[in-house]
Design brief:
The protein is α/β, with parallel strands linked by helices and about 220 residues long. The protein has one domain: 3-Layer(aba) Sandwich (Uracil-DNA Glycosylase, subunit E). About 40% of the residues lie in helices and about 10% in strands. The chain has a six-stranded mixed beta sheet, covered by helices on one side. Strand 5 and strand 6 form a beta hairpin. Helix 1 packs antiparallel against helix 5 and helix 4 crosses helix 8. Bound molecules: iron/sulfur cluster (SF4). The site of iron/sulfur cluster has 14 residues, from helix 2 and helix 5.
């Protein structure tokens, strides 16, 4: 089976997942009630597959789809303020062909990059439980197996960072406390993959000045060195 076919099969199975009762209820409630400005749109309301270059060397991992972003559009980091900021930075550094990430068919192409989320369904208040993260971890594992050419993982936020460390801990005796999260902090995993911490591109971080365009672009430019 080709990698593309393996991804297609994986995605078609994953988007029917109903393992987390609380999240299934929440994702469907959001999709039914909708935000006023999107009331004429059909919300995705299902688990969100990753997207991008399946032969990529760089993987971006976020926390989870946003209620009216990924959960509406069906693509992670698509159709919300986090996506606007992230894609502006990715486009500036050649990782994306355009500055906008609005809809699944908007023409966005990621260059040598693949994008996913640690949790595939939107959680209330952006706060998944430990049990939900544990249950969904099986899908991140599958993605990691399918992405055969990875050299770098950029974890967007601490939960994504810790989840990625957990992935590597399955194969190596890593102690999480030895890998503090920070923007630009980089760690070589024993299989040679670089794990890089990155502040999440959320409005909470951008509006408070914790994260700005220059900081993000600097980190992305270093990925190519
Ligand atoms: S969060 Fe993951 S495991 Fe839970 S219902 Fe969604 S896809 Fe399934």
């Amino acid at each position: 089976m080709t990698i593309q076919k393996s991804f297609d099969k994986f995605h078609s199975e994953m988007i029917t997942c109903t393992k987390c009762t609380r999240l299934v209820t929440f994702r469907e409630k959001i999709a039914t009630e909708k935000r006023k400005q999107y009331k004429n749109e059909e919300y995705w309301g299902k688990p969100i597959p990753g997207y991008g270059d399946i032969n990529a060397e760089i993987l971006f991992v976020g926390l989870a789809p946003a209620a009216h972003g990924g959960n509406r559009t069906g693509r992670v980091f698509t159709g919300d303020k986090s996506a606007d900021f992230l894609m502006k930075c990715m486009h500036h550094t050649g990782l994306a062909n355009q500055v906008n990430s609005d809809y699944r068919d908007d023409g966005l192409i990621l260059n040598n990059a693949y994008m996913t989320a640690m949790l595939k369904c939107v959680p209330p208040q952006d706060k998944p439980t430990a049990s939900e993260l544990k249950t969904c971890f099986v899908y991140f594992n599958q993605e990691m197996k399918l992405l055969e050419n990875l050299k770098t993982i950029v974890a967007l936020g601490k939960i994504a960072f810790d989840g990625t460390l957990k992935y590597f801990k399955q194969f190596n005796d890593l102690k999480t406390k030895d890998f503090p999260f920070g923007h630009g902090k980089s760690y070589k995993m024993s299989n040679g993959i670089n794990l890089i911490g990155c502040y999440h591109p959320s409005p909470r971080n951008v509006n408070t000045g914790k994260l700005n365009f220059e900081m993000m672009v600097n980190l992305f430019q270093n990925l190519k060195n």
